[in-house]
Fold Lymphocyte activation gene 3 protein.
Amino acid sequence: MRPRVSVQDSALRNGNFSLRINPVRSEDAGLYEAQVAYHTGVQSCQVELGVITVTLSPPSPVVENEPLLLSCNSSHRASLVETCWFHNGRLVPTSGTFCSLHGALSILRPAMSDAGSWRCQLRYSDNEIISAKYNLQILGFDGPTNPVVYAAAGSAAD
């Protein structure tokens, strides 16, 4: 896992044996065990790392009015019960242009207003709730709805 894994050597003296993984990948999910040998014995602990991923299809850049699919997947072992999607902090109703199915959100005709922070929230049969964010960028025209712009002669027009 090198060079993504590090241990803070300075923290070891204070009894902090933390492992840092940056960036985390899907294949990093699983059980980790730490063993520390002292003069009198061995201390150990186990930590399970769960990973959640949000992927975009087709990959960026997304073009306005071209369908896209945001998928949310987790390494959690329980059965998925519910998926909720939030756009800029607001719950997205899954009807009309937004269709949600098995952890994925389909946006049939993405608009410039659909750009921004998206968060998927997964709820499992064991009541575990896991969420992740994705910053969606959309290429398109974010100008006036009327395509005619008037400018005074001799001035600048945008």
